[in-house]
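Batch manifest, entry 17 of 40.
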Amino acid sequence: MSWRRTLVSGLCFLILASLVWLDSVREETREMEAMAERSLLDCTVDQIMSVTLTNSHGHFTLMRRDDGWWLTDPIETLADQGFTFAILHNVANGMRQSRVAGISAAERADYGLDDPQITAAFTLQDGVTQTLLVGSEAPGLQQFFATIEGEDEIFTVSGHIRANLTKTLFQLRDKRLFPDLQPDMTITAIAVTTEAATTRVESDDEGVWWIETEPERRPADGQVVVEALRAVLGLRATGFLDPQPLGPLGLDPPLLQVAVLDEAGGVALDIGLPTSLRGDDYYACVLGRGQIVTIAGSELARIPRTWPDWLDRDLLHFTPDEIVQFSITMPEDWADLNRAFGRGEDGVWHLIGGPEELVDQEQVDELLTMMARMRADGVVTVDPTIPLEEFGLQTPSYTFVWRRDLDPSVPEERLDHGGQLGDTDAHLRRNGEPVIYRGPNTYGEVIRLRHHLVDRHLVRADLSGAARIEYRHDTLRGETQLIDGVWRAIDSEGEPGQALGTEAISNALTLLAAAEHSRLMQGSGAQAVRAELADPPWMIRVQDAAGDTLADVRANNIPSASREGPLFVLADGERACVVSDREMLVAVQSALRTLPLH
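Output type: structure tokens
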């Protein structure tokens, strides 16, 4: 045979061998892909009736019943429905990640399957049991070798499958303290018993909660009651204890007992000592069940202990539409803001007595809305012997008084506020009662709103129609008029002259419209201002095209914003005012410097 024939034969052999190898690889790949698409179990969650699980924490049996999943081994108790569903869902929907086929029984030890770490037997509705065995970790894959008992295939499962099957007895059992409560139960009362006394909170026929205290019951806070009921009925055990003497645990007698009552009787829980000095958990026992558990101290803290903790925290109990009169009284520094307001038959707010100032209706609504929403964070004390000075209530930062009815037989109501500027919280007292509440500090907001309850603008007319401006500074005078859309200076003989800067005049009008007074003057003080400013050193008068006066503001001289002493202003020829802030009028003066003076 020639070397050429030998070479051709060798090449043909290599080609055939490559084809055979490639076909084998393709077949293995197809098998692995088919295996990777297969579920761990050949069933759905709904088909599983029981689970027998053996792991490093013990041996457990779970069974499906009409009222849910139950643990039957090592104890018989309701199972944690969430954990049970997680196990079933993840296993029934888990996938086989990879495959090793044809492994002998002896070789299974190499995969940790001769003595599996986890054995989980799932019994289906038809009585067939599928048992999943989980062995050692697959190197470098973060997966675990597994197989189905009776099959000769080994595959891998993800780490979360193994984690779902590595549960403890505590995790598997139901940790709710009151699992038998019906969602539609009608709760009629809650009672909390301490070493000192029992506080009972009851609901009336209209669903309003009341604290049963002597000599008369007091209104309870509905939100506090709801939160307390949620805390009690939602309690979950943080641990389960074996039977033991109750005395050393503070459970005989209990340090605290909480009872939730309904028409059928209700449930009760005894609470004892903390399990450690930190107080993270407390010993507890559900009455009638005998099981000793531990509960979280953070949950226990949500349950009020004494009757003041249940007191109603909605401090003012009104809606803005109900109020017909109110007043705000402040200390001496803000005494000029002390005014009373009344609502007329037309629904419009007005000042009661005092100067005829316009009331800002929107600001009144904002103030009353804020007051109506005021809610205390808690009760500080109900001890009437503690001096009010300790709470800043001997001289409150403000007192809010309101009426819902003008009938004198209907008493007015009041709220004393003890917070100062800069404080985060404030002490509050309602209607002179001995209960001192802690709540948000609204002093600064009340000052802001109260300052704007009346219209303090020096000019009340709309200046957009201005057509003529007369301005005086000491003995100098100037005038300008809008002629054919151009502001022109008016000379001493009344003739129009040079065009002036439109922007500067527009700025002056805008500033003038925004200028405010601090307070109105009355009586002889107002008369003196009117007399002094009959021929003022500083004046600006604005008229429209028809010659009607839109603004007439007169003031004693204002050379600078830093000048000391009050700035007296006569607005519209009638209102005598005091202006604390000179800067606005100084800005008006600066903007009008372009006017030629003569």
